[in-house]
Amino acid sequence: MVRARSEERRADILRATLEVIAERGYRGASLNSVAERVGLTQQGLLHYFPTKEALLVAVLEERDRWDTSGGRDREGWRLDLLDSLVEYNAMRPGIVQTFSALLGESVTEGHPAREFFTARYAQVRANMADVLRLEYGERLPGGLTPERAAPLLTAVMDGLQYQWLLDPSAVDMPGAFRDFLRLLAGSTTTGKPGDA
User: Fold this and answer.
1) pLDDT-above-90 percentage for the chain
2) Measured CA distances, 108 to 96, 102, 104, 113, 188 (Å)
3) Which among 48, 8, 51 has a CA at the least distance from the CA of 31?
């Protein structure tokens, strides 16, 4: 019972942290502001997360767990599941905004999320290469290897998120991603990947 309550409190803290970061950015978010949202003192918050950096990494790891919920781990992705992930992200702008803000901030020297994102992107590129290899074999229709196309696939997913966050009425993120998948396949037809 105590463990369940502790896990529930941790989950509340992570949700509150996402909200605060979405509103103020990582640098503008304070432990005190997160603690106030969940009815704790700053000292009480430090019982769960000993530093702001530890809290940030926990938030990022939790966001990745949400993306891979439903029993899908990154090693099990297929192109149609990536399409579903983009659609899912279009339904949760707050999470996407927080992730994008942290990603943008993390490129600065000494940012506490830099190591997390560097390792995450190395893993994502490897996973995207596996996804592409599963779909196309050792060469995509345009001639690229899965390893050469993986950074492009990753860049399109993240780049679409930024454009969509800035102007959601002008950017159909799921539709644009499906268009990119058709480009990868060497197809000019409309519809979802795999549609005739």
Assistant:
1) 48
2) 20, 11, 8, 10, 39
3) 51
Q: pLDDT band at residue 91, thresholds of 50, 70 and 90?
A: confident
Measured CA to CA in angstroms, residue 106 lies from 19, 60, 111, 177, 185 at distances of 18, 12, 5, 25, 33
What pTM was computed for the model?
A: 0.74
| Token couple for 90 | 């279009």
Q: What does residue 72 show for φ and ψ, rounded to 5 degrees?
A: -100, 120
Torsion of CA 42, 46, 49, 54, to 10 degrees: 80
Q: What is the pLDDT of residue 150?
A: 97
Determine the Cα–Cα distance for residues 37 and 4; give it in Å rounded to an integer. 20
Query: Please, what sign has the CA dihedral across residues 33, 36, 37, 40?
Result: positive
Q: 5: which 2 tokens?
A: 């309550």
What is the per-residue DSSP string for 87-144? HHHTT-HHHHHHHHHHHHHTTSTT-TTHHHHHHHHHHHHHHHHHHHHHHHTTS-TTS-
In angstroms, the first-to-last Cα distance of the chain is 53
Helix 79-89 × helix 146-166 angle, to 10°: 20
86's tokens: 């983009």
pLDDT number for residue 71: 35
- The stretch 64-87 carries a mean pLDDT of 69
